[in-house]
Amino acid sequence: MSFFMLGMLILLAGGFVSLCVGRRPVPASLFGSASAVAGSLLAVIPSFQVLIRGVSESWQTDWTVPFGSFYVQIDALSAVFLIPIFGLSAVAAVYGATYLLAYREKNLGIPWFFYNLLLIGMALVVVARNGLLFLVAWEIMSLSSFVLVTFEYERPMVRQAGLIYLIAMHIGTAFLLVFFIVMGHQAGSLDFTKLSGTSSSVANLLFLLAIIGFGTKAGFMPLHVWLPYAHPAAPSHVSAVMSGVMIKTGIYGIVRTITLLGTPPAWWCWLLILIGVSSGILGVLFALAQHDLKRLLAYHSVENIGIITIGLGVGLLGIHRNSPLLAVLGFTGGLFHVLNHAVFKGLLFLGAGAVLHGSGTGQLDRLGGLLKRMPWTAFFFLVGAIAISGLPPLNGFVSEFLIYLGVFKNAPGGGLASAVVALMVAGSLSLIGGLALACFAKAFGIVFLGLPRSPLAQHAHEADWTMRFSMAVLAALCLLLGIFSPAVVLVFQHVLPEIIPFDVSPIQKELESASAILQHFVFASLLLLALTGAFTVLRKLLLGKRSVRQAVTWDCGYAQPDARMQYTATSFAQPLTDLFRIFLRTRKTISLPEGLFPADSSFHTESSDISERYLYAPVFQWVGLLLSKLQWLQHGRLQIYILYIVLVLWTLLIWKLM
Amino acid sequence: MNNIADTIMIFLVLTNLALLGVSRLGTCIRIVALQGAVLGLLPLVSSGGHVEWHLYFFSAVVVGFKGMVFPWLLRRTLKEVKAQREIEPFIGYGTSIALGTAVFVLCMWLSSRLPLPKEPPSMLIVPVAFFTIMSGLFLIISRKKALTQVLGYLVMENGIYTFGAAIVERQPVLVELGILLDVFVAVFVMGIAMFHIHREFDHIDTDQLSRLRT
């Protein structure tokens, strides 16, 4: 615990130092990133100890705030979240050190200070064991990330994104506030150890509040509206941290709630699975229709949160039905995917940042041909794309595979419900995987292959070494987490007993059998890697003696093909987006070429979010209309406002003394 | 003892009512100064015979600030802004006095219901303290000139001070002096602000200032 606290202090101190020298960009970046790296690496040590030994560490001290106590604890569940938080943040800080230097004219102390504060907030959220401390940490996290999102506040789009983010976060926090008040009212204390064993109707209410409150942060499908705005607006290393780990605190909140609320009724499990399926499928569909690289990645966060939630739902169903198999594989799959998603989504956002940094645009239709100009970035992005599509031998495959394994093994002999779960989960996971693959074929193909579609892409330059180093670390982790998955899965033996109220021995047994199956996978993937390597060497050898000529791939029979004749992002995805147009509701603006000598013609598509258009826009309009009825209260005269205050105070006093 | 405290209280009520009915700003400043100076004597009276040396010191400081420094600062501002009287207040002078009397009755009733930690030196102290706070707020709400608002603020502070003298056994001198310093800074800053407002807009009418908002 002392290492953890020391790490927090370094983060705080480094943030302040960076703030003090903020006007000078190089020292500010240096202090900020160095303290973020040092603090993270120190603070992560206790998490590894806890995961290996299986003994949790806690620290408690009084706090003068009513109902609050400064009670923190690192147990195995916290550790599983702390490791990606600190790991990804450290790597992203190295990346940010040079990435932010592109904004030399700004005060760089501010983003670094709030970056460190964001880390502190996230870590405290995960270790807090008191409701009030949790909410304070939650707010630190939300507000500091808001400042980071609005870093480029000169752009109107960024300001709008910041506003949407701020509102969404506080609606979520409002639900959490009610959640903790109801819970604390039941238990008489806000310490997590005393919160348990409520009646079923209250537990149902609490569960729904948690789903909405934490789901807003995590980005469940109708609550995700802030994600596609905030992620593209933030600087790329911050997007990586936000998408990779910050939204996972929502998942952590739901898992922690499950441990506090006791035995789940069946509908909780089905609700989680349904949320997971809808977030997963709709997330990837909307990703497919996007034109902006970072916005596309943001929708993939929704998709992956969906996959994680499916895992949690399956695990919860296991608890409900007393099935260690489902519980172990579901939760292991879900939580492992938390770690995996942090790694590959972090990698992809850093890659997108390198593209943005090198070319100056994230619009897919203005990029192209970057493979030749940014070979390293292209390679790392490809690794991330393979991982996120859930393909072996990388880590994304493993966690999805565990969930598949759970539902398939459970399907025979479990009655109708088991079959339905198997069909629903396996069916939707494979649909998500397939669509994700299509989406990243599009993203990688449009950005890195073909010819540059604009002068910006023409003059793109490779990222410098700190950015490449960060991406290399994450890419290596993608492979290592896949190759060493049998060992990583066994680490969960201390985590699962925190969530699953069964005996330890069946949990252990299930994990060992899963680990054994994964060993086959590792063997196959090593074979695949060896074969790929062998073929590459063979190709090199064969080509070595011949002359290699570069030519246009396919010119459609035109005499002078142009870069604009290539597939665009929209046309590449068009067969799929048309198939799912019932969900996407893409608006197309077409003016067709007419006459013998056609002049100007244009084609424009826009897939705005359905929940935004059909749910939030009407609701907010209605609220606005209602509130405008109260406008007569607002005169703009100071005297009247003071009168309001006086009237309220006196009414209260008289009412009290009556 | 009680007689003197009661006399001070009745003096407070009268000054409050006078403030509600007077339109000339110079007179208002003089009334507030008088009120503050008399209030400065209250700790000497209400301590119950045994008077410590620091109370004398404290009394002197309060009388000095409220009776001399503040009026001097305000009068200087008044001279600079060349405003003579409150013109067209939101609530007229006659109505103000009538309302003030009604509020005083309300305050009497309230204080009869209010539980206190100890018996105050005079039964009038609590209602009068309430009434003074209310008068200050009333001045802030109903008058237009920025200078009157500062006076309202001072009157309100006088009320709080009276209340403190009523219910607190022995206030730490440091706390009292701290509050006094706050008020001093506030009056100082408000005086400067008013001067600048006047120089910029040629008046200190707050209702016209509210048009500045975008």
How far apart are the termini of chain A?
Answer: 53 Å
Assembly context of the chains: heterodimer
Radius of gyration of chain A: 26 Å
> Overall mean pLDDT score of chain B?
81
Total DSSP helices of chain B: 9
List the helices and strands and how they pair.
The complex is a heterodimer of chains A (658) and B (214).
Chain A: H1 2-20, H2 25-43, H3 45-53, E1 57-62, E2 69-74, H4 76-99, H5 109-127, H6 131-149, H7 156-187, H8 200-218, H9 227-233, H10 236-246, H11 248-261, H12 266-288, H13 293-320, H14 324-359, H15 370-373, H16 375-388, H17 395-410, H18 415-448, H19 455-458, H20 465-483, H21 485-491, H22 496-499, H23 504-544, H24 569-579, H25 581-584, E3 587-591, E4 602-606, H26 610-628, H27 638-657
Antiparallel strand pairs in A: 1-2, 3-4
Chain B: H1 2-21, H2 25-40, H3 42-46, H4 53-81, H5 93-113, H6 125-142, H7 146-167, H8 173-201, H9 206-209
Helix pairs in contact in B: 1-2, 1-5, 1-6, 2-4, 2-7, 4-8, 5-6, 6-7, 7-8
Can you walk me through this structure?
- Chain A folds into 3 domains: 1-180 and 197-202 and 219-262; 265-538 and 567-572, no CATH class; 615-657, no CATH class.
- The radius of gyration of chain A is 26 Å and the shape is globular.
- In chain A, a hairpin with a 6-residue loop joins β1 (57-62) and β2 (69-74).
- Chain A has helices at residues 2-20, 25-43, 45-53, 76-99, 109-127, 131-149, 156-187, 200-218, 227-233, 236-246, 248-261, 266-288, 293-320, 324-359, 370-373, 375-388, 395-410, 415-448, 455-458, 465-483, 485-491, 496-499, 504-544, 569-579, 581-584, 610-628, 638-657, and strands at residues 57-62, 69-74, 587-591, 602-606.
- By secondary structure, chain A is mainly alpha-helical.
- The termini of chain A are far apart.
- In chain A, the strands form 2 sheets. Chain A has a two-stranded antiparallel sheet with strand order 1-2. Chain A has a two-stranded antiparallel sheet with strand order 3-4.
- The model of chain A has no long low-confidence stretch (mean pLDDT 90).
- Chain A has 27 helices and 4 strands.
- In chain A, 50% of the residues are buried.
- Chain B is mainly α.
- Chain B has one domain.
- Chain B is 77% helix and 0% strand.
- Chain B has 9 helices and no strands.
- Chain B has helices spanning 2-21, 25-40, 42-46, 53-81, 93-113, 125-142, 146-167, 173-201, 206-209.
- In chain B, α1 packs antiparallel against α5 and α7 packs antiparallel against α8 (173-201).
- The longest helix of chain B has 29 residues, at 53-81.
- Chain B is globular, with a radius of gyration of 18 Å.
- The mean pLDDT of chain B is 81.
- The interface between A and B is medium-sized, with 13 and 12 residues.
